[in-house]
Predict the structure.
Amino acid sequence: MQPVSREFKIHSSKALLDEKLSAALARTQDGFGGQRAAAVEALPEFQKIRERALRIKNHTLEHLDYYLEKFEREVQAAGGHVHWARTPEEGRKIILDLCEQAEARTVIKGKSMVSEEMALNPALEASDIEVVETDLGEYIIQLAKEPPSHIIAPAIHKTREQITELFSENHAQYGLTEPVTEVADIVHEARTVLREKFINADVGITGANFLVAESGSTVLVTNEGNGDLSSTLPKMHIITAGLEKVVPTFDDLSTMLRLLARSATGQEFSVYTSVFTGPKRNTDQDGPEELHIVLLDNGRTEMLGNEFREMLRCIRCGSCLNHCPVYGSVGGHAYGWVYSGPMGSVLTPLMVGLGEAADLPNACTLNGRCEEVCPMSIPLPRMLRALRVRQFEEKLVGSRVRASLGAWTWLATKPRLYQAVTGLGMKMLARLGRKNGSIRSLPLAGGWTQARDLPAPEGETFMQAWARQNRNRGARQ
Amino acid sequence: MSSRDSIFADLRKSLGRTESLGADKVAELQQRSDVAREDERPQVSGDLIERFVVKLTAGAGTVTRVRDASEVPRAVEQYLEEHQLPPKMVAASNGLVGSIRWPDGFQVEHRPASRDDRVSVTGAIAAVAETGTIVVSSDNESPTTLNFLPDDHIAVIETGQLRTHLEDVWSALREADEMPRAVNFISGPSKTADVEQTLALGAHGPRRLHVIMVG
Ligand code: SF4
């Protein structure tokens, strides 16, 4: 999709007024958050596993060229093909060419965030190829013509009533006459219609949760089994993945798998973990004739060399979204691109440009929950701060903010003056709030006091209180 | 410069190198073996079978235990009766499943599954107690569609195939000449919670997973 992250303020303001969205977000955060906590609680070894995962991924990134070459060699030895895409455009081109080769009319897709990065669906549709998303959540938002609002639960912002309506509108062509209102019926309806699509599709496109260098395998984790049908029934299977997804061996994979489902949904293990190596063998009776793996860079090689390298450890579990108060208030769409929440606020500026997504690094309270719950121990708050610094350096910050920051810096680097001015300020604030202990409105801070009162300070700055205590202590001794 | 070459050049630049790793380093990486220590894996204590059953049923799978292979047809029959299914199945033709002598009146075909097949029967190459998972791999006698298209998937495993951890499955797979096209780790029936976080079974894959455990 085209990034609309510039409009974060507009979209988040709207989202804050949307009660249905608030309810859906609360349900998701409570659900996923609670289940994750229980799963972590039930596994005493969790910390050790997390430390090991960190070690594995750091080792892999340090030798990423080696492991990617190894992966490529093994894929080829198993009869598959690896394609390299520097940009989303290159990725789209590779996949369009492959679909053309396969004379594809219908493509079925398993959920793939990298294909979202590539904005693949509109490109395929523009070439007269029917694209059908098969993950139920992705299918729902495809019907609604919306982008995903959560990396692992793309349709969490949709209520059951809205889904019922979408099905009524779109499934009449398949013979649906009555509205489907119960969850089980909705699932059954999607299953029935998508079954036909699976059977008739020419190409299946899925993502990959991991790539295993040891054997040239790709690993796909799902609960629905849609990825397995997408990868088994059509004659061509195309896998899209970011090039950071590689792990050296299956033993490393085990560690990652132990963290992924627990962090994502609180499951110990997802229903399906599938390891694909090469296309159908001569003796096999089913499976794709051709297997193509498209590895996307899109800023990743650059991240490897700067202060954002650790972001490449991300396994897209969604845990940071589920624990972020900002995501929990505004939802995924406000972020304006493919990724949302804390990981999205780091990735979006790095992938589409800081100028396109200037608000995102600032949409953060720096409460640190995301880093705490990140299975890969990614210092998301530090990265968001680094992006703010970059923003300032690249002059992407408005002149008013720059001027006030400049004034503050001038003042803060002169300790005596600073203390005098803040001391005066404190006294004034204390006097302003003397009556009710709080201040209802404050010049220059209207944005802050509009929604809440400022608790009035006691009248002393920290330095003054410190000095007073020291004096008292001295007097006592 | 091809995209591939330019990506590798960028990778190396970011890693502070100009060339691929030297022979010594490559040899060292080839030797690397980093298997999770005991305290870096979920502890699996007590009876493996019990653990497997607890975990699989927690994921909405069902299990019946039988004493030996001769009792498998009866267990299948019971399952079909219980769910009012006709004795008509597609099945793998390898291992224990391939050698089952089905009772009269059973229609069992050995082929990939197609849209209208209701019930499939497969074996497994292993089962994992840690996670309550069966591991089914593709080969000419066990097409992958059997694991995904039918509404009911019955898997027959022997207690001797039970492994403690995921790691134990990889070591078994490495012993074979080559990786199969697909190795499917299956921990229950297909499910989704994409509608209002409400769990529903049978999203795209089987609505039910039933394991018959022999021994
Ligand atoms: S940043 Fe961490 S918590 Fe967030 S999606 Fe990535 S791995 Fe999960």
Notes: The longest strand of chain B covers residues 152-158. Helices of chain B lie at 3-14, 23-31, 48-58, 72-82, 95-98, 145-148, 166-175. Chain B has two domains: 3-34, 44-214.
